[in-house]
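Page 37, top half.
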Amino acid sequence: MRRWLCQGFGGLLALSLGHSLPLSAESSGGAVSPKTPLGIGVAPFERVAAEGASVPDVATLLADRLATKGVDRIVGPASLGASATAEPSAETVRGWAERSHLWAVVVGRTTRLGRSLSVDVQVRGADDGLVLATFVEEIAGPADLGSAVERLSDQVLALHTPPGAPEEPAPPDEAAQASGSSGMTPFQGDAPIEISAAQLEAFEEDGRKRLVFTDGVRAAQGDFVLQSRRLEAFYPAHSSQPERLVASGNVVLEQLNRTAHCDVATYFRDDQRVVCAGDLAILTQDDDELSGKEITFHLDSQT
């Protein structure tokens, strides 16, 4: 089992449970549609070190971090079928991108220099295989690895994410039609979950990954908000999307005018269902209160 500790992640960690992150209309790699899925491939990084010295798997760390930032699809080093080279030919990159239907491929080299690391990263365009951008991170020690991966992931996403671009609201007539006669707005099950936390740990075994968020966790998807001390995200083998989230420690769930408190809450992504359980789970809605060992939220039907 592989384990990484990444501290200092104070920003938003977006766990995409569906589709679409708005993209800019143009980039140095050619025009892309704002509706184009943001598929990113991360190739294994070339690792350079003295004999017997270890070099962390920065490529896998970066792929895992991108997958928690609302990216529509991530193809990581284990699935891309790419070689560990920092300078692949343009034709090779085009082949990787075409095979996995990507808009860009990230390649790089991690060099061990005593206790420090130097990480050189290139983002290569899918259409021509040429360099869209180059980023370099100098890492003084193990404690700085997490913040370096954080910066690299932000820089990669910034290539196609307009800074501060607001989402366009639906026209009033469309919003009213979507709400239906009951006036209830449908749950946005394909929207990304936005998660803020102070620390992130990543584990991998037999291709299955587990990400653990701790310290002041807050997750939101549409009108659903979850707060807890700890949140675990479980990924199937070779998937960049979690199949299950488990929150524990002073869990508070909110959706519209309902609030629930419990010890442990489990979110099943495919079912859009949250089970809130513990010694005593309490649900309040307006002036009503319900308590028991287990309370289930069906987010799609808001029941």
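Page 37, bottom half:
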Amino acid sequence: VKQDALNAAKKLLEDDTAQVDVGTLAPLELTRVKALVAAAEVDLIRSQGLFDQQEITLKNQLSRHGTADSVFRGVHILPTETLTVPLSDNLAPLEDLVAEALSNRADLAQAEIQITNGQITLEGSRNQVLPEIDLIANAQTRGAFGQSSINAISQQAAAPGLGSGTGTSKLFEAGIQVSLPLRNRIAQADATRDTLQVRQMQARLQQLRNQIREEVENATRAVEIARSAYTAAAQSRIYQEELLAGEREKLSVGASANFFIVQDESLLAQARSAEVAARSAYIKSRSALDRALGTILESNHIDLDEAIRNH
């Protein structure tokens, strides 16, 4: 926009210089146009400086070594897309957007997992306070090996086929063991502590849900405001273009002055800059809404699973 404004100012300077040379325009008007060209050059320099600063910031985000990376040192980043505002937002009803955010937000899922883990820990702490009943059972088989058994073994060695004199005995024991944790202060303190922690996590979960709803509501409202602002800015730019075109037609027939052309050129440059700022504000508001809904990765076609697999 600043470059176009400078080009238009230079074109106006060329036309006015030709008129001054032929004596149809006062030299004072030429000075006014030169001031317009100088102001447009200053605006372009400032915009170019801001662009260069943003390029450095983006390079630091893209590379681990930032601008010290030899790959980025001698290259410039050129945008391949322009900021475009769609004809309509096509936003779902607010309650549907809130429900989508509650199902997609990773921070909410993490908080719910923490509550589940806390409840498991609390259940274990409460079990330490309860009485413990153990059923004990023991079964054993013992072999009897006495003097008669020795004689039997000797006889079997002399005459195989005789029965042995060995014997066995079986023992079975059963019982119940009851443990009563009387005044177990440590277990009671642990259970109380875990109960409070679970309640705190539940309170934080509800706060997070309220915060997500608030973020979605604010982001939705911001999108609506940004669209209205962009529509007004675009309409203002159209009006300024029409005013400038009409003033030039009047000047061509001698019904206007060069001063009004310079003035309309400046107003048109301001209107175009305001339109670009409004367009940028709209894109940022949509990104903020995607972040609040938890869909910012999908909206920008970013697949983390693919990145993890490639890594």
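Margin note: The beta strands are 132-144, 167-179.
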